[in-house]
Design goal:
Structural class: alpha/beta
Oligomer: single chain
Radius of gyration: 21 Å
Distance between the termini: 12 Å
Largest sheet: 9 strands, mixed
Helix content: 25-40%
CATH architecture of the largest domain: Alpha-Beta Barrel
CATH superfamily of the largest domain: Aldolase class I
CATH class of the largest domain: Alpha Beta
Strand content: 15-25%
Number of helices: 15
Shape: globular
Number of strands: 21
Strand order of the largest sheet: 10-11-9-8-7-6-5-2-14
CATH topology of the largest domain: TIM Barrel
Length: 450
Amino acid sequence: MTPELLARYADSRLPRYTSYPTAPHFTPAIGPDTYAGWLAELPDTATGSLYVHIPFCRRMCWYCGCNTVVTQRDEPIAVYLAALHREIALTRDALARPLPVSHLHFGGGTPTILQPRDLGWLMAALRTAFPFRRDAEIAIEIDPRTLTAEMAATLGETGFTRASLGVQSLDPRVQAAIGRIQGFAATALAAERLHAAGVDALNIDLIYGLPHQTVESAVATVEACLALAPSRFAVFGYAHVPSFKHHQRKIDAAALPDAAARHAQAEAIAARLVAASCVRVGLDHFARPDDAMAIALAANRLHRNFQGYTTDSADTLIGLGASSIGRLPQGYVQNETRIGAYVEAVSAGRLATAKGVAFDEGDRLRGELIERLMCDFRVDLDAVCASHGQTSGSLADAAPALDRLAADGLIRREGNRIEVEPDARPLVRAVAATFDAYLARSTRTHSPTV
């Protein structure tokens, strides 16, 4: 990518497009009664996946963009877990028939902040409420600094198949600047314990664009992590939004790399992973060739949701826990963000839905176009429009922006077939944004394009 092209687009702030419409456009018009009705209307053929949010940590990492709170006490976690069990039962009861589950993902916060016995009880409740497919992927996010041998063993005993280890950076100077001190030994020990417990599929989460981070330190982190033989890497760009996440004010903005340096770090990480035989998947993932994600990419079956790139093809995602987001054929729903409001809702016997959005046919069409661009870097407008009973004429509003992107060398067009140029793939969100009918109305501060 030329420096001119990078300068023209990289500083723009755009959604990550893990949904469409994006979360800032959810409204309180979608509440518990609407959600309950949507659950009851699911057809016999519906397939499901689950996301469980555990919004607690023992300490706050200053770069964090997640919905989490810090607690040193276990009592708030116990109250939350009781509410989570109640929500599982409420959701099960709202369904007209059992929903078979092919994926389960625990996110946070730090899900392994739970006591091993509590995680075991929670898994038992989920398996009772939802029939799990025999080959279901069951995944969890882990802070390697706090993973105990007992918890690792519990993960194996309760059927977890994949774990994501948060690493971000192993550079001591960067770690000090983001409030997360984590030696490589802690990460290696966590990987060893997981493998011993039978959790063989490991992901490593890295971040570029952190304060004081350099190309050399980013690549050195990759080199160290490759020794752990993970099956996937997720490599995210740090989004500095201190007005939205106040704890990020502890980060020295003057120490953050500029757009050119961020791009150089991202590409250096990518080059090292590709050299290690990883397949580049979408915007920010890398997978071993035999991993399910690389296989899905080759078969044009890759998807994107609030966990990022995924092999999950279920048409229904049930979100459980405070702030969690679900996706049904009818639209998106999001639970109460505040833990207290969430606990109050489900304790009163009602679903905790606080907002959402109902799809119209335009949302479904544009959502598929955006997902295919984000996953495949190419899309056939005529084919996708035809599958929704429309013609490409319904996308006339995107034509001027597509012409500019083509003139700038970001995309190549053959009729209504669009493909992002290989060296412009880091800017794919700018291409996806041409189909976003809501973007002009958004007042939300998004993350940098690169």
